[in-house]
Every structure is written in C-alpha cells, then in structure tokens.
Amino acid sequence: MQTKKQSFVESLANVTVGFLVTIISLHIIFPVLGIENHSGKNTLITIYLTVLSILRNYLLRRYFNKKQSFNEK
To answer: Does this entry carry the keyword Transmembrane (predicted)?
Structure first.
C-alpha cells in the first residue's frame, strides 16, 4: 500500500510528464490546424489542467489504495 506522500509523488511525476507532452504538442498541432499559438495563454490553460490532473490522480490513487486496504482485511 502506498503512503499519501508516495501517491502524491507518483501523481506529480505522471502529470509533469503530461504537462511537458502537452506544451510540446500544442506548439506542433496548433499551427497544423491553423489555430493561433499564444504561448502565454497555452501555458496558463495547461497549468490549470495540470493542477486538476494532479488532484484527480491523487484522489483516485488514494481511493483505490483505501479500497485495496479494505479488501485485504
């Protein structure tokens, strides 16, 4: 079973990789689709969605950890 800290670190690592992939992807796909590329706006949106992803990953990890712990008893 993971500790809360381990769950948070895993979620943070996962979302950090996702953040970097998203930033790079936006700079590639927006010009292909003819969408104006505003780095500041793109970064702000990505940061907002990244925070949501960290919370989602952490809460889901804790939920399943708790569920697994309950099933082992």
So the answer is: yes
